[in-house]
Amino acid sequence: MGQYPLQNVLGARARLGEGPIWDSSKSLLYWVDIYNHRVHQFNPATGENSFFDVGDVVGAIATAGADRLIMALRHHLAFLDTQTGVVTPILEIEGNLPDNRFNDGKCDPQGRFWFGSMCSLEKPHASLYRYDQDGSLHVMETGLTISNGLGWSPDQKTFYLADSPQQKIYSYDFNSVTGNISNRRIFVDLTHESFYPDGLTIDSEGHIWSAMWDGWCVIRFNPKGEEILRIKLPVQLPTSCTFGGEDLQTLYITTASVGLSQAEIEKSFYSGDLFALQTDVTGLPNNDF
C-alpha cells in the first residue's frame, strides 16, 4: 500500500478543509472549509467542485436524506438543502460559551448525529453531543479540549474519539441500541510525538486511519492501537479522511493552510488541497441521519 501513488485531486487551497463524507447514492464527496463557511461538493468523475456558503463556521456535516445535510455550525445545528442552498436552523447549543465552537462530527450506524465542541486550551470544557432523530439532545462526554476524530468499529461495539491537544485517541464501549458509551480508555497515546490526532475514519477490517495535524501524514492503527502504516503527505496539516469511490477503496484526505507562515507554505505548497489514495482495503459506508 505504501507504493500506491497519492493524487492531488483538487487544488482547493482551503483554509481549514475538514469533515469529508462520501455520498454513495450520488458518488459525491462532501467536505467543509470551516473558516470560509463553506460546504463543498466534489465530483471525482468530473473533477468539478462547487460549494455552498452557509454563513457561519461549519465544523461537521452528515447526509440527512436525499438532497439534505445536517451541519454543526459554530453554536447551532442546521439543515442544508443541497438543491437550493437554504440553511434551516434546528437548535442552538453552547451559546453561553462564546469561545467554543463545534468541530468534528458524524452519524452512528443507527443514524444519530454525534458532534463535539472545542474550547480555549486554558479551560477544558468542550463536550461531545448526540442528536437523535426524535429531536432529543444528549451530552455524551465532558471535559474535552478539542473533540475530534470520532468513529465506530465494524461490529458496533467500540466508539473512538480523539482529543487533539491531549494527543490521545480514546476508545469506549458502545451500546448500539441505547447509543450510550462507557469505559473510556486510551486507545492511542501520541504524547511522545510532535503532532496531533485530528479526524479519522475506520475501514471494514476495524483499522483506524487518523490524520495527523502538524505531522505530514495519515497513520493506520490496528484494533489494538498499534501503528501499522504511515502515509507521508506533502502538506503539514492533514485534517481528516474518509473512504469513497464506487468500491469504497479510495481514501480522501482533507488538509489545511490556516496559521502557516509564508516559509511553511513554501515547504507545504499544496496545503488546503484535497488528496486521494487508492488502497487495497474497503472502508465502511457513510451513515445517514
From TrEMBL:
Query: What keywords would UniProt list here?
Result: Metal-binding, Zinc
- Co-factor note (free text): Binds 1 divalent metal cation per subunit.
The active site lies at 198
InterPro entries per the UniProt record, alphabetical: 6-blade_b-propeller_TolB-like (IPR011042), SGL (IPR013658), SMP-30 (IPR005511)
**The organism's place on the tree of life at top rank:** Bacteria
- Which cofactor is essential here? Zn(2+)
Recorded GO molecular functions are: calcium ion binding; gluconolactonase activity
Question: Where substrate is bound, by residue?
Answer: 101, 103
Q: Which GO terms describe its biological process?
A: L-ascorbic acid biosynthetic process
Q: Where does the signal peptide begin and end?
A: none
Q: Which residues bind a divalent metal cation?
A: 18, 148, 198
Family (UniProt): Belongs to the SMP-30/CGR1 family.
Q: What is this protein called?
A: XylC, xylonolactonase
Organism, scientific name = Nostoc sphaeroides CCNUC1
